[in-house]
Automatic annotation (TrEMBL), chain A:
<keyword id="KW-0732">Signal</keyword>
<comment type="similarity">
    <text>Belongs to the leucine-binding protein family.</text>
</comment>
<dbReference type="InterPro" id="IPR028082">
    <property type="entry name" value="Peripla_BP_I"/>
</dbReference>
<feature type="domain" description="Leucine-binding protein">
    <location>
        <begin position="41"/>
        <end position="400"/>
    </location>
</feature>
<protein>
    <submittedName>
        <fullName>ABC transporter substrate-binding protein</fullName>
    </submittedName>
</protein>
<dbReference type="Pfam" id="PF13458">
    <property type="entry name" value="Peripla_BP_6"/>
</dbReference>
<feature type="signal peptide">
    <location>
        <begin position="1"/>
        <end position="30"/>
    </location>
</feature>
<dbReference type="InterPro" id="IPR028081">
    <property type="entry name" value="Leu-bd"/>
</dbReference>
TrEMBL record, chain B:
<dbReference type="InterPro" id="IPR043428">
    <property type="entry name" value="LivM-like"/>
</dbReference>
<feature type="transmembrane region" description="Helical">
    <location>
        <begin position="317"/>
        <end position="339"/>
    </location>
</feature>
<keyword id="KW-0812">Transmembrane</keyword>
<feature type="transmembrane region" description="Helical">
    <location>
        <begin position="284"/>
        <end position="305"/>
    </location>
</feature>
<feature type="transmembrane region" description="Helical">
    <location>
        <begin position="23"/>
        <end position="43"/>
    </location>
</feature>
<feature type="transmembrane region" description="Helical">
    <location>
        <begin position="227"/>
        <end position="249"/>
    </location>
</feature>
<keyword id="KW-1003">Cell membrane</keyword>
<feature type="transmembrane region" description="Helical">
    <location>
        <begin position="179"/>
        <end position="197"/>
    </location>
</feature>
<feature type="transmembrane region" description="Helical">
    <location>
        <begin position="261"/>
        <end position="277"/>
    </location>
</feature>
Length: 447, 352
């Protein structure tokens, strides 16, 4: 009996030890480029996670199936569940980084991205925070490996304020108006507090910023405060379950839904459908349109979903905002690799080489059309010192069944924002003792 | 050999002068931890497993002093971790020339002071009522750290960056360096905790836990003992918070120290074994390391069949079932379970 027990525990220990020593599933075949995905398919933000990572994987899969990879280099990926929690994200980073040929990281979480900045800079691998992230990482002089592609939080804020201005008949009409920002109680939510204060001072409107603690499924107190404050507009800077709850609570407290403007993480079908009628007439900013009529989405349906190889469980979500964002993210990552391959050769690239690709990621409208994404997103123009890439935004209104675009492609006020960003990034560089890069450093690439 | 086997290992050693054999196992563990592990470990082992394990173990040691030994249930551990982390960050940032070691001590003292304040209800409340009142610490600290951006140096998103880890002129860099940093602090404080529980103060803790009235009658200063338990436990938990933020995550935001973390630390000592020092380490191993092993094995075996979300849910179910199983097998926790297994094995050897 005793012998058996000790044997059993030895066997258990041995099998557990095996779990650590066995190499990762992804085999080290020649010419593969790997995407480690810190995804979240459970927890309060699963809707965003499944949609975004579903779209991302679908696009990578499309490139493999249709084109046989990027110039013959196959794309691979592996997932680590984070539940949007920072320490799980860090654990997943440490676990997945040993995969060969890592191209870039796409955590889709500001908290996890912050925790990774030191690590990826040391490991020389790009960190992509599309439409979110740390605003001053836009400054490639200080953050060589971080890319808040398309839209950083300050540009988003500028876009929203400009849109409200245009609704009121010009930015000068903002004077004396009152705007409430209802933000998610997380690093992501707080990122824009200073820029709203600054724009309020510049344009003469009054701003009140109210926090909703994570995850945000109870907002009675916040909306009562809003009712007392009687603002002209409420900007909803939410995430996950916070958004439908905000729309429903707004309806309950009698705040008109057409005066609520959602930010780029409050703009999905998953945010409005659960709110039912309370969401009809709600407007939100976006960098990529929703809908399945774009050629690239159609190809994904034809090549993957019709063969039963799509990543989304629910086919109704194909072409939804998060799914399309994942596809756009896939396009940007793949094109960065393609651009880097033109310089370094059609083979597995190092993280630093892919960084070079991202720093030359320039897709004009013609190239976007050639990729089958015309009107899905506008264009991008990343340079070594501008890691955002001047993305354009548009506004969409929910009509109860689908999002309808209600504005042209709008450019945020980049010239206004750049000095603020540089001030912040230079302070960071000073604090951390980082040498500010020059254009000459861009071509210094580690193999 | 037979001398080594004589006394049951599970008996709590309360003598003032522990004999040499008490130190054999801890010394072996230390030699392995300091000498062998860094020689063979991968960076994932340090960054992904050992650093959170060490930080949570230390928090467990701290809470075990309060809950296991002194019998005061607390749900505010994560708050004290947060106080430690943010205090260390601010001392390091705002006091010029203060070495990191000084910041850590001051951070621990700050956490101890906060712990003392939130320990005051323990003078009147017991059991569940005290647990509920320590919740106040949890909510208040998190609120204060979020509300006043001064604590995070006016950083826009409320996230702070960790400074370089320098102790006595030596900078701990890389995964192994941070591991040594954490291991050194954990060893020192665990030793301190061990000395404490075998001292008169430790016996006072146990007396207060087992029967407050009796303790008062034999002349133990009950109020002072309780408050001291809160202070010393918060000190250790505060330093654990520093390790969590600076050595492990290297970034910290208040939301990372939420109620879930407090529960995690409480469960960790219950599963590991209340009123034992090593129980905190067993418990942390089960709570931190085991889910990772499960996820590794799960991904290896079922990775192609299910997506990571399904696997993650399955792991929770397995972990939950295992915890129930362990506690049924041995309500006194893993420390007692392992002691019993060891006895059985020894018994088997002696018989044969």
């Amino acid at each position: 009996m005793t012998l058996f027990r000790s044997f059993r525990s030895t066997a258990l220990a041995a099998s557990l030890a095996l779990g650590f020593t066995l190499p990762n599933v992804a085999s080290a075949l020649a010419d593969e480029q790997h995407f480690p995905l810190q995804s979240y398919r459970v927890g309060p933000y699963a809707a965003g996670g499944t949609g975004f990572f579903g779209g991302f994987i679908d696009y990578l899969n499309l490139i493999n199936t249709r084109d046989g990879g990027v110039n013959g280099v196959k794309l691979t990926w592996s997932e680590g569940e984070t539940q949007y929690e920072v320490e799980r994200g860090v654990e997943a980073y440490e676990r997945l980084k040993s995969n060969p040929g890592v191209a870039a990281w796409n955590p889709l979480s500001v908290g996890i991205a912050y925790a990774m900045i030191d690590r990826i800079t040391q490991d020389k691998t790009p960190l992509i925070t599309i439409n979110h992230g740390r605003t001053d990482s836009t400054d490639g002089r200080v953050f060589p490996y971080v890319f808040p592609l398309l839209l950083n939080p300050y540009s988003e804020t500028s876009g929203i304020v400009n849109y409200i201005g245009s609704k009121e008949g010009g930015l000068e009409s903002l004077k004396g108006k009152k705007i409430v920002v209802l933000y998610h109680g997380s690093p992501y939510g707080k990122e824009t507090i200073p820029i709203y204060e600054l724009l309020a001072k510049k344009y003469g409107f009054e701003v009140q910023q109210i926090e909703v603690p994570h995850p945000g499924n109870e907002q009675q107190a916040q909306w009562l405060t809003i009712r007392r404050a009687k603002p002209d507009y409420v900007v909803l800077r939410g995430w996950g379950v916070m958004n439908p709850v905000a729309l429903k609570t707004a309806a309950k407290t009698g705040f008109p839904v057409d005066r609520i403007i959602g930010n780029v993480w409050s703009n999905s079908e998953e945010d409005v459908i659960p709110a039912g009628d309370a969401a009809k007439g709600y407007t939100a900013i976006t960098t990529q349109a929703s809908g399945a009529e774009y050629p690239v989405v159609k190809e994904i349906v034809k090549t993957l979903y019709d063969q039963g190889k799509g990543n989304l469980d629910d086919k109704k979500r194909i072409g939804s905002v998060y799914h399309n964002l994942g596809i756009v993210n896939g396009i940007l990552n793949v094109e960065a690799i393609r651009i880097a391959q033109q310089k370094f050769g059609k083979r597995t690239l190092t993280g630093d080489e892919v960084r070079w690709g991202f720093e030359h990621l320039q897709l004009d409208q013609a190239r976007v059309e050639a990729l089958g994404a015309k009107d899905l997103f506008h264009s991008i123009h990343v340079t070594w010192d501008n890691h955002e890439g001047n993305g354009y935004v548009t506004f969409q209104q929910w009509d109860g069944a689908k999002w309808k675009v209600v504005s042209d492609w709008i450019a945020p006020d980049w010239a206004l924002l750049r000095p603020i960003i540089e001030k912040s990034s230079e302070a960071y560089a000073k604090e951390k003792g980082i040498k500010i890069r020059t254009a000459a450093d861009v071509d210094t690439v580690t193999n | 050999m037979s001398v080594l086997l004589d006394t049951p290992a599970s008996a709590p050693n309360l003598s003032r002068t522990p004999s040499l054999k008490t130190w054999v196992w801890p010394l072996i563990v230390l030699v392995v931890a300091f000498g062998l592990v860094p020689a063979f470990g991968t960076s994932y082992l340090f960054e992904g497993i050992l650093l959170p394990f060490l930080a949570l173990s230390l928090a467990g040691v701290g809470l075990n002093l309060l809950t296991g030994y002194a019998g005061q249930v607390s749900l505010g551990s994560a708050a004290f971790m947060a106080v430690g982390a943010f205090a260390c960050f601010n001392f390091n940032l705002r006091v010029d020339g203060l070495p990191l070691f000084g910041s850590i001590i001051l951070a621990g003292l700050t956490a101890a002071a906060v712990g003392l304040v939130f320990g005051l209800p323990s003078l009147r409340l017991r059991g569940f009522y005290l647990a509920v009142s320590t919740l106040a610490a949890q909510f208040f600290v998190q609120w204060a750290l979020t509300k006043f951006s001064w604590f995070s140096n006016e950083s826009a998103s409320g996230v702070i960056d960790a400074p370089a880890l320098t102790l006595f002129g030596f900078t701990f860099e890389g995964a192994v360096g941070r591991y040594y940093f954490a291991l050194t602090i954990v060893t020192l404080l665990t030793f301190l905790a061990y000395r404490l529980v075998v001292s008169e103060v430790g016996r006072n803790f146990i007396a207060v836990r087992d029967n407050e009235t009796a303790a008062r009658i034999i002349g133990i200063p009950v109020l002072r003992t309780k408050l001291f338990a809160f202070a010393i436990s918060s000190f250790i938990i505060g330093v654990a918070g520093v390790l969590w933020a600076f050595a492990y995550l290297r970034t910290v935001e208040p939301a990372g120290f939420n109620l879930d973390r407090s529960f995690q630390i409480l469960f960790l000592i219950i599963i590991g074994g209340l009123a034992t020092i090593r129980g905190a380490f067993y418990g942390a191993a089960l709570i931190v390391v085991f889910p990772l092993i499960l996820s590794r094995l799960g991904a290896l075996v079922f990775g192609d069949l299910f997506d990571s979300g399904v696997l993650d849910m399955a792991q929770r179910i397995v972990l939950g079932a295992l915890i129930i199983l362990f506690l049924i097998l041995e309500p006194d926790g893993l420390a007692a379970l392992f002691a019993r297994i060891r006895e059985k094995i020894r018994g088997g050897f002696l018989r044969s």
